[in-house]
């Protein structure tokens, strides 16, 4: 038994564990790494671990050994630099954390802004400021990143308030004309699928995001043969190939493993030559367009045509003026919790959150109480009504929101309200039915003997007697809605979820708490208010 227990960590140490973030390109790169190393070592691809903070924590804790990352993210979000420094400096700072950076893969996936292809007059980011009137739908991470919206707005003088959206929903929102401008990654397959125009960064704001491997320093020593195989990927994935692979997943619906297999069949790393030491500031480059053999292996619905000649340096030395300005834009330190808590957006977010909760609970009562009455008075429909309300509550919130957007043709408050009403129905329907069923038969007969009609008995006798139980159900629905309403921020409905989602994306605990604390306080306030109402209803009985 002891030898069996001792063998468990040994088996784990024999496995090269590769992580990936929760977006298409990271999934594909993770599969490429796993399959490239597989001939030399047992591999495990831990897919979609989460955002930068979660995957980085897994790397530091030894849960994974390596994952694909980007130089801009490493410099600005992990090492907290105001701009991307030289590779040698990043290596020194990462080494202090027990981590290393290596194997530039050959493409730059930086941020950019995009508009619909037919948008007149907008060709550069500067045009957005000069013309005005554009509606921005930006990912929560981009809104909160040091190198994202805050610095971009200052650099270009953009005064329009952005709407926070989940990145996957933003393309649909742009197509349906709910927003006019979204943030994109430069290797997104959907740029061509939706016919978008990528705006020129005419003031040189966005830093480079060259794809590299971020790894534990002991990984190369523990898996020398596998590591050499991974290093043969250096400079061999041009932007065109990456766009083609992203399109194969997002447009053609191919699975990540088969996409990686097709690329490796065209570019076998096992036959690659020895890899030289990584230069201080450059990566070996290949043609930017998609490889012809790869295009044949991945027959895409939309084949990208990328016109770049070679992959640029891993860490390009930007012009002095833009780099200095970017450092000035992004160098502000994070404020304290109290300052974040009562920032300028506190009252607008509170108004949005309270509006969502009040309207959703009111609408849930409008539908739920009659359904509860029907279930109480018609036993034949009681189980179907309860079952339907229960099934609706089990639908995952993100899935429900994603389904409602195309059905309603909009984002924001509308779909969020429908989702919140759906989740609030069960406690209201159930408690209405239970409260009415608990009214003593003697009181019902007495009301009938007094000549009261069915509607009068319900309004003047049964509902007042059932009110404490009914209010308990409404209280449960309201408190649940306060928490569930935070998810609505993913589709641009606002509320405290704006802070929570941005804080999660940026690993900013202060911002996360600045959203969670008001939501918790509002839930307590709602619960207290309903308890007072319950006491008053009992006194009137």
From TrEMBL:
Domain ABC transmembrane type-1: 350-530
Main location: membrane
GO biological process, one term: glycine betaine transport
Compartmental location: Cell membrane
Swiss-Prot/TrEMBL keywords: Membrane, Transmembrane, Transmembrane helix, Transport
Record field: transmembrane: 356-378, 385-405, 411-429, 465-491, 511-533
Membrane topology: Multi-pass membrane protein
Gene3D superfamilies, per database record: MetI-like, Osmoprotection protein (prox), domain 2, Periplasmic binding protein-like II
Keyword Repressor: no
One cellular component (GO) term of this entry: ATP-binding cassette (ABC) transporter complex
GO molecular function: transmembrane transporter activity
InterPro entries, A to Z: ABC_Gly_betaine_transp_sub-bd, ABC_transp_perm/SBD, MetI-like, MetI-like_sf, PBP2_ProX-like
PANTHER family (UniProt xref): GLYCINE BETAINE/L-PROLINE TRANSPORT SYSTEM PERMEASE PROTEIN PROW (PTHR30177), OSMOPROTECTANT IMPORT PERMEASE PROTEIN OSMW (PTHR30177:SF4)
Similarity section: Belongs to the binding-protein-dependent transport system permease family. In the C-terminal section; belongs to the OsmX family.
Protein name listed in UniProt: ABC transporter permease subunit
């Amino acid at each position: 038994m002891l030898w069996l227990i001792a063998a468990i960590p040994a088996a784990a140490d024999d496995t090269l564990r590769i992580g990936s973030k929760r977006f298409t390109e990271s999934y594909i790169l993770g599969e490429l790494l796993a399959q490239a190393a597989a001939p030399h070592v047992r591999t495990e691809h831990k897919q979609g671990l989460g955002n930068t903070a979660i995957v980085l924590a897994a790397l530091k804790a030894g849960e994974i050994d390596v994952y694909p990352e980007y130089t801009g993210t490493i410099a600005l979000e992990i090492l907290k630099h105001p701009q991307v420094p030289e590779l040698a400096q990043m290596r020194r700072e990462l080494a202090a954390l027990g981590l290393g950076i290596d194997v530039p893969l050959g493409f730059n996936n930086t941020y950019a802004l995009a508009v619909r292809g037919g948008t007149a007059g907008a060709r550069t980011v500067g045009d957005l400021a000069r013309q005005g009137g554009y509606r921005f739908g930006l990912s929560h991470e981009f809104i909160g990143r040091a190198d994202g919206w805050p610095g971009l707005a200052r650099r270009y003088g953009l005064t329009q308030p952005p709407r926070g959206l989940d990145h996957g929903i933003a393309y649909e929102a742009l197509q349906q004309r709910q927003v006019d401008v979204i943030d994109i990654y430069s290797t997104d397959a959907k740029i061509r699928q939706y016919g978008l125009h990528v705006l020129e960064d005419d003031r040189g704001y966005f830093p480079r995001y060259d794809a590299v491997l971020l790894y534990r320093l002991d990984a190369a020593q523990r898996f020398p043969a596998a590591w050499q195989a991974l290093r043969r990927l250096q400079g061999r994935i041009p932007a065109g190939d990456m766009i083609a692979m992203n399109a194969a997943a997002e447009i053609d619906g191919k699975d990540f493993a088969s996409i990686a297999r097709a690329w490796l069949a065209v570019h076998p790393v096992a036959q690659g030559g020895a890899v030289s030491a990584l230069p201080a500031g450059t990566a070996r480059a290949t043609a930017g367009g998609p490889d012809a053999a790869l295009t044949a292996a991945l027959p895409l619905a939309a084949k990208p045509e990328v016109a770049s000649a070679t992959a640029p340096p891993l860490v390009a030395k930007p012009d002095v003026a833009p780099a200095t300005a970017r450092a000035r834009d992004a160098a502000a330190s994070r404020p304290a919790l109290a300052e974040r808590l009562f920032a300028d957006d506190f009252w607008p977010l509170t108004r949005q959150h309270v509006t969502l909760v009040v309207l959703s609970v009111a609408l849930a009562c409008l539908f739920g109480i009659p359904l509860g009455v029907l279930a109480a008075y018609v036993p034949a429909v009681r189980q179907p009504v309860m079952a339907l309300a229960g099934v609706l509550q089990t639908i995952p919130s993100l899935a429900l929101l994603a389904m409602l957007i195309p059905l309603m043709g909009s984002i924001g408050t509308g779909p969020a309200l429908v989702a919140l009403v759906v989740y609030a129905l069960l406690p209201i329907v159930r408690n209405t039915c239970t409260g009415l069923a608990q009214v003593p038969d003697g009181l019902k007969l007495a009301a009938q003997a007094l000549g009261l009609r069915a509607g009068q008995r319900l309004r003047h006798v049964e509902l007042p007697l059932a009110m404490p139980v009914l209010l308990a159900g409404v209280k449960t629905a309201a408190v649940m809605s306060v928490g569930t309403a935070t998810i609505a921020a993913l589709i641009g409905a606002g509320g405290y979820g704006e802070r929570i989602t941005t804080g999660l994306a940026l690993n900013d605990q202060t911002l996360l708490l600045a959203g969670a604390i008001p939501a918790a306080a509002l839930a307590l306030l709602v619960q207290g208010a309903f308890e007072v109402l319950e006491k008053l209803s009992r006194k009137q009985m």
